Amino acid sequence: MDTLVLAETNPESRADALSSLAVGFRTRFKQTGDRNDLDLSIKHHEEALKLRPEGHPDRAVSLSHLAIDHFMLFEQTKGRQDLDISIKYYEEALEVWPEGHNNRAISLLNLAISLRSRFKMIGDLDDLDMSIKHDEEVLKARPEGHPNRAVSLSNLAVGLRTRFNQTGDRMDLDMGIRHDKEALKLQPDGHPNRAASLGNLAVDLWTRFKDTGDIRDLDLNIRHQQAALKLWPEGHPDRAGSIFNLAVSLRTRFKQTRDGSDLDLSIEHNQEALKLQPMGHPLRATSLSHLAFNFTDRFAQTADREDLLSSLRLAREGAAHESSPAIVRFKASLL
Predict the structure, then answer these.
(1) Considering 95, 138, 193, 240, which has the largest number of Cβ atoms within 10 A of its Cβ?
(2) Cβ-count burial of 204 within 10 angstroms (0-12 exposed, 13-18 middle, 19+ buried)?
């Protein structure tokens, strides 16, 4: 606060001091989750912005900081107003950042994420189209050899896959797969993001398999999921979802090929996923019902009474699991 007092008579120094203090409050908010710190960060950045009118060389910096703060507030509150404000500030900052400026690419990237978040909230395809457009511009600013090219490729692939799910345009999905493949090549063995890239490409291939029925995509989906699973350490928050998705893919291939080893592996992975979803977990009933169907499938193959009993027991538990959505409990009750 002493710095602010000393800068009272100098607007330029005061704006710098306010901005620095605001960044400190935001940093502490990230550590503690204290909403008051985030509110103070917004307050100080707003005051700094007033001291940096149109034409000021640091105006875009203040606009970007406010956009970040309001997006973080949106992540806390899920309030549409905070997201709209974040988007507005990012758009204003982009009008100021010159072409080729490094911060322009960062603002484009963050704006694309914010627009995609609003699309998920309200379903306006214009937001998704604009998000993809901005991600494409970021990618152009990050040519081969750029350290963040893989991140931009992955972000663009997510947007394209999301749009495919809305429109059914296969060109979007094929382009997304191409981008995710390039991202994976840029993240070789030992890269901290390799597991995530493998998972993203697996989702793409699963989506295309569901669209075309081409089992080659399913085979590749399973291969990439197995590779990702080897990289997720025990206790990693993405491990349970990865295990469950692999179990679903293996059961799907079993239904295509009737290869019992796929079904056995699906059961094994489903059981592991279930251990990571204790009582009260919202996805436990989903895992219970999938595992129940797996045992039903194996009973149909082997006539092993233990498989039938396991299926019935799991189905009953899934149907009684109140923390899961009603539709999931209903499906479980059908067994």
Answers:
(1) 138
(2) buried
What secondary structure letter does DSSP report for 233? P
Residue 2 has pLDDT above 90, yes or no: no
The model carries a pTM of 0.86
Residue located via tokens 């979802």: 241
Q: How many CB atoms lie within 10 A of CB 308?
A: 16
Q: What share of the chain is helix, strand, coil (3-state, %, to 5)?
A: 80, 0, 20
Give the span between the Cα atoms of 327 and 296, in whole angstroms. 20
Domains and CATH numbers, the chain: 232-335 (1.25.40)
Q: Tokens 């007092």 map to which residue? A: 5
Q: Tell me the two tokens of residue 2.
A: 């002493």
Mean pLDDT confidence for 225-236:
93
User: Is 316:334 a contact under the CB 8 Å cutoff?
Assistant: no
Burial 162-196 (b: 16+ CB within 10 A, else e): bbbeeeeeeebbebbbebbebbbebbeeeeebbbb
